[in-house]
Design brief:
Strands 4-13-12-11-10-7-6-5 form an eight-stranded parallel beta sheet. It is α/β, with parallel strands linked by helices. α6 links the parallel β6 and β7. The radius of gyration is 19 Å and the shape is globular. The chain has one domain: Aldolase class I (TIM Barrel, Alpha-Beta Barrel), CATH 3.20.20. It contains 13 helices and 14 strands.
């Protein structure tokens, strides 16, 4: 809900971050930017990308560069998609409806959060043709999960993303200081007919007992591909393959859950090696430039998902701000591809990078 003068020219993702910092309320800003404990992992997610150097190849015809790829068999215009984040109405009145419209216009995937501040039905109406996945926080009541998954499936969502790294909530000091959790509300675990919102921590406990053997129950109630979000180790990646899931998002929850774990880009290598090409691997956390996208793909990610930068774009100008963020990053990625000699995403490989000794 921000005013922007015509003189403003935001040219990179960190410009949107600076603008959001200036214009959002302190509690909203802290909610978006905050990490767990000392925010070591939140900051390392970004820093780790800068420890990787590029090895460009020249004298290749890059007059045509194609950023398109597929995820779970569906084409996307670039390997840059939208990660699940909650409460978009905190930063823009239309919230997730605006986010969904921007994703549809860009031709990329939007993972809608359990903690969306708009109803799923309204999000689908806003962007009926968009590629949507649904992120699930598993509720202790299996029937509630079943009802929500069936609703998601009937609304045309194409995959179920189960978040694993939140059996308990991380220690987010800013939110505790701001008493934010009391003030946030959730519309989605209620039936669509109920419109009154209820404080979300009362409404949606997250299962603390979820384990690997429970995945077969989810597979029995849905035909949607199941993606596991929050895997950081080869051991868990091997178990994911063993339990026949369709994908992994390498993620540390933006550094908001367990602090002092590996940066996402540093964990990616061992996860990719462990799955041996059997399932698709994606990444979120710390992507801010086109070079970052290229590096993630070079290390084996099928695509990346953006969290905070989408909220910065939304705070700037709603749907149009999100479109700008996606457009800037896609253009940067196109440039990175051309300048490293890659004409298609299939040509991006491990030989393009080396880890710096810095």
């Amino acid at each position: 809900m921000l005013e922007s003068g015509p003189e403003m020219s935001l040219v990179c993702l960190t410009d949107f971050q600076a603008h959001a910092r200036e214009h959002l309320s302190k509690s909203t800003r802290d909610f978006i930017e905050g990490g767990a404990d000392d925010s070591v992992t939140r900051d390392d997610n970004i820093a780790a990308f800068k420890r990787i150097r590029l090895r460009p190849r020249y004298l290749r015809d890059v007059s045509e560069v194609d950023t398109r790829t597929t995820i779970q068999g569906e084409e996307i215009s670039a390997p840059i998609c939208i990660a699940p984040t909650g409460f978009h109405c905190l930063v823009w009145p239309d919230g997730e409806m605006s986010t969904a419209r921007a994703a549809q216009a860009a031709g990329i995937c939007y993972i809608t959060s359990t903690f969306a501040s708009c109803s799923l039905e309204d999000i689908v109406i806003a962007a009926p043709e968009g590629l949507r996945w649904f992120q699930l926080y598993v509720h202790p009541d299996l029937q509630l999960n079943k009802q929500l998954i069936q609703r998601v499936e009937s609304l045309g969502f194409k995959a179920l993303v189960i978040t694993l790294d939140t059996p308990v909530c991380g220690n987010r000091r800013h939110d505790i200081r701001n008493q934010l959790r009391r003030n946030l509300t959730l519309t989605d675990l209620q039936s669509p007919k109920k419109v009154n919102s209820i404080p979300y921590f009362q409404m949606t406990p997250i299962s603390t007992s979820l384990c690997w053997n429970d995945l077969s129950w989810f597979q029995s109630i849905t035909r949607l591909p199941i993606i596991l979000k929050g895997i950081l180790t080869k051991e868990d990646a091997e178990l994911a393959v063993k339990h026949n899931v369709q994908g992994i998002i390498v993620s540390n929850h933006g550094g908001r859950q367990l602090d002092e774990v590996l940066a996402s880009i540093d964990a990616l290598t061992e996860v990719v090696a462990a799955v041996k090409g059997k399932i698709e691997v994606y990444l979120d956390g710390g992507v801010r430039t086109g070079n970052d996208v290229l590096k993630a793909l070079a290390l084996g990610a099928r695509c990346i998902f953006l969290g905070r930068p989408i909220l910065w774009g939304l705070a700037y100008k709603g749907e149009h701000g999100v479109k700008e963020v996606l457009n800037i990053l896609t253009n940067e990625f196109h440039t990175s591809m051309a300048l490293t000699g890659c004409r298609s995403v299939a040509e991006i490989n491990r030989n393009l990078i080396q880890f710096s000794r810095l």
